[in-house]
Amino acid sequence: MTNIQHIESRNNGKIRAFKKLKEKKHRTKEGLYLVEGFRLLEEAFKAGKTVHAVLYTEEKEEDFSRYIRPYIEREEVYLASQDVIMELSSTVHPQGIIGIVSIDESSFTDIPISYEDTSLFIYLDGLQDPGNFGTIIRSAHASGAKGIILGRNTVDAFSEKVIRSSMGSIFHMPIYQNGEEMLSRLLAKGYQLAVTSLLAKKNLYHEDLTGNLIVAIGNEGSGITEEIAQKADTLLKIPMPGGAESLNAAVAASIVLFERVRQLEWTQFS
Amino acid sequence: MTNIQHIESRNNGKIRAFKKLKEKKHRTKEGLYLVEGFRLLEEAFKAGKTVHAVLYTEEKEEDFSRYIRPYIEREEVYLASQDVIMELSSTVHPQGIIGIVSIDESSFTDIPISYEDTSLFIYLDGLQDPGNFGTIIRSAHASGAKGIILGRNTVDAFSEKVIRSSMGSIFHMPIYQNGEEMLSRLLAKGYQLAVTSLLAKKNLYHEDLTGNLIVAIGNEGSGITEEIAQKADTLLKIPMPGGAESLNAAVAASIVLFERVRQLEWTQFS
Description:
Two copies of one chain form a homodimer. Chain A is an alpha/beta fold. Chain A has helices at 13-19, 24-30, 38-46, 61-68, 82-88, 130-143, 160-165, 179-188, 226-231, 249-269, and strands at 4-7, 32-36, 51-56, 76-80, 97-102, 120-125, 147-150, 175-176, 192-196, 202-203, 213-218, 234-237. In chain A, the strands form two sheets. A seven-stranded parallel sheet of chain A has the order 8-7-6-11-9-12-10, sandwiched between helices. In chain A, strands 1-4-3-5-2 form a five-stranded mixed sheet.
């Protein structure tokens, strides 16, 4: 393991640089993001993410030794003051550990080709709420999706809120930043594009979702863009027998993802 | 319409009293809660809620006249300063209108008895996140559920975050505060209690959910309590072919609610 260095002051140059990673602009520029808390950081290591640095406080020596130290090879490790952790933290009660993790570049060529199974991707078409984004990543991971494709005007994937609400699933789901290219290439490969729409006529439960599929999820307020709706092979409607006009975006996405799980399971049993 | 009174100072006695409604303790004591924004307040009126008072700023006279004035009968109406609205608001950019709405007491005797349809209730067993709560109310409303039953240690239903994330569905869903009594009475009436559990063996998609049903949703971290698990007729597992260990609580609830929608629709078609 590398030597552990001490950082006491939040004005330390490294800390000032790390703090900038709270902003999307700097995350994109540096290709790094902050991961806070033992459970999430351990999950990042387990998932094989490249961790650039780890900072923890003296009081958390035991937790560090137990959960994080076993993974440390060449990572920079800092014993930091409470002040320093507070400076980098986004929570009211910091857990005393923060990691600096590399953003993986996922691209079309990474997609495993399977001749046995069909694949599912989620395309985010202007989704804005980080909590919804994290929840969608978690559902996508649970449902066996192969990745998340970021369309235009979609909120950044590597903010603290997205990571936290993904419950660590973000470390397991490829995130395709170059969304429009990725979408075109999958469509060219024969993938079907399905979108949920309040104006749709096709009932979700009557459609076959078991093929190679991209599910697009729109903006919380305005839904799917005209551009994506026109590319879609199917406009799906989730039947709502009650009075509400619409569902939360992450809920609508998850209902479609798990209807696919149900259909796939059915075909396996029959 | 009643006379419109002016309130300039946030130290006004009424304002100090209304501000206390940001806390659960005072909401429960007064039987009142705050509703912020034109869309939500209009929805409260539309749903027939009892509105005690409305406060709005001069700049919003036009929106007030258009969306809210048509509903005003004996409600107290105040033209308030920006300062006053800021004092009562829970958002960074207040919309310039706040209503004080009465908490309805829903009880067992309100439940409509139907000999044609089956009914669905949601029982919240220690749910803690207000955003999840609001999202569940919205999904419950969309799926045609008859009400939400609050179990022990469940977060308050009338906080600003719950109301906002319910997107107004809270005004349409009966909320049963006396949860344990309500649960006992429904069970005595022959309702089935289903809970989702990561330890369950019964696959959600193989179970019949079309009868009179209560779906219980547990705490975000610790799940269903032992007490409720023991009362349950069915422990349901949502199949997760991917790697994630669990789903967001509101997502899990919604997947069960909409699997019931699917099954009911199926029985109607066949």
